[in-house]
Design brief:
Layout: E1 4-8, H1 13-22, E2 28-33, E3 48-52, H2 58-65, E4 70-73, H3 83-103, E5 108-114, H4 139-158, E6 161-167, E7 169-170, H5 179-182, E8 183-184, H6 186-198, E9 204-209, H7 221-226, H8 247-251
Parallel strand pairs: 1-2, 1-4, 2-3, 4-5, 5-6, 6-9, 7-8
Helix pairs in contact: 1-6, 2-3, 3-4
Length: 263
Amino acid sequence: MASTVLITGGAGGSGGSLRPGLRRPDGRLRLLDVQPPPDPPRLEVVDEEVVIGSVTDLDVIRAACRGVDAVVHLAGIAGEAAWPDILESNIHGTWCVLDAAREADVQRVVLAGSNHATGFSERGGEPAADDLPHRPDTYYGVSKVAMEALGSLYADRHGMDVVCLRIGTCREVPTDERSLATWLSPGDTARLVEAAMTTPSPGFRVVWGVSANTRRWWSTAGGDAIGFHPVDDAEPYADQVTEEPDEQVLTRVGGPWARRADR
């Protein structure tokens, strides 16, 4: 594992659940967020540091990238929002992270993408490939398409290794019919990110972020190629899901986000 890892959005829910799985005796985590984490680092136990600021502030992100071996980019709006907000936080913020990493000669960047980059894609009979074509279901999904495009550009143009994760339903436990297929457990999230940081010379790569669910919709090929071997399965939670499934939710990758809007 890289000796110093910058996690943008390190104080958020995803960052908080990821941190324990990435801690190593010989490693250091640098957490960047607009606010401190709810559980401040105990430096006598865990080698962590906190940087307060936004990924859209180039001076802040440039300073945060200095001396870093890898960047895990989680920061941004984690759902649908107005276009100006998505543009600034998710698209411009991703550019800032990639360009600051380039300037600091950080070779490895892991981007937290989303299945919503392909949300309007119809589910087929076979597991969808990791490079399923873009069909975003929201402005948020568009921002994740842009994230993949920027990652591809920086890998090809600047020789960086960029792994973009098309994350499924990232929760403590699956809570509905769709997430029995799309769930990514906290433990598998850490395994996925570590694999993305340590796989040799990936160039640019897109990988589904999903656990070893019995009902999974997405291929395991991309994960296998980078050494990601999920161990958790949503199936033990199936008897806790009592709601009747909406067939439209189950026919498209993006589920309820992939609905045709009224004009």
